[in-house]
Amino acid sequence: MDTLQSKTFVVIQNLSRYFISLDINSRILSVSDFSKNIDVAQGTVQNALKFLKDENAIELISRGVLGTFLIKKDIKKLLRYADITFIVGVMPLPYSKLYEGLSTGILDSFSSALDVPVNMAYMRGALKRIEMVSLNRYDFAIVSKYAALKYMKENPNVIDIALEFPQKSFLKGHSIIFSDSKSKQIVDGMKVAMDYDSIDQMELTKKVCKNINVEYVPTNYSSISIKLKNKEVDVAIYNSDEVSDNLNSIEINLDNMDNTVAVIVTSKNRNEIKNLISDSINISEVIKTQADICSGRRTPQY
Description:
By secondary structure, the chain is α/β, with parallel strands linked by helices.
């Protein structure tokens, strides 16, 4: 491929990603603006736009002094020309039926809407998942709305919330679990498990231990039950969905239910992925799949 063809290919790729990120009936940038942004000649931009129009990947309409608008786009073609050949997300380890259902439902939605393969990786800790997205190691991450909003407040212009599911889509709630079957409350001197990679668990732990003189013990979330059993810690905050009946636990009642809401986050500079997610995923279908898996009517596939 000669240099001219290579430049045109790069421009087609850039424009395809731009149009994926753009909503229908949105005003598009001018050719001169495209030229400046991509740092190529205006003629190369015009050739790339003509190619996408001739391939029926996009349909544009000029509205005079108002500018040119995108009125139609073929996502599957744009993905091909954008050279997006696969998408990978990351979510919590699927140790609960809710997580299994969420993963299955999201992958089902993508499969129906897109031709490219979409895979899910699994990683403990909302902070780690968000950081991997910010580094473009993954295209999207599933975390709680509480974790996403807290991270966004402390780290502006890093991630966006692409999609939000209903309450209790991430988990039903959190509970305080005691290692001693006779304990009824957190008191001074207790050792408290703290997972510093889990934004929700860490912040809720601080909340319930406020004004109590406790010792925080760094603990991976997956090791909490073992440390409680071995009396290495006295108390821990844990997902209520996974608390067995034989444990001494108290459910935490919160006015803010954001910790139960699942959201999909994307990197702030990946508008094409954010738009793909909002266009491809049917929230009601995902929640239905989640309910079917939780009730045993369907087997999870993820």
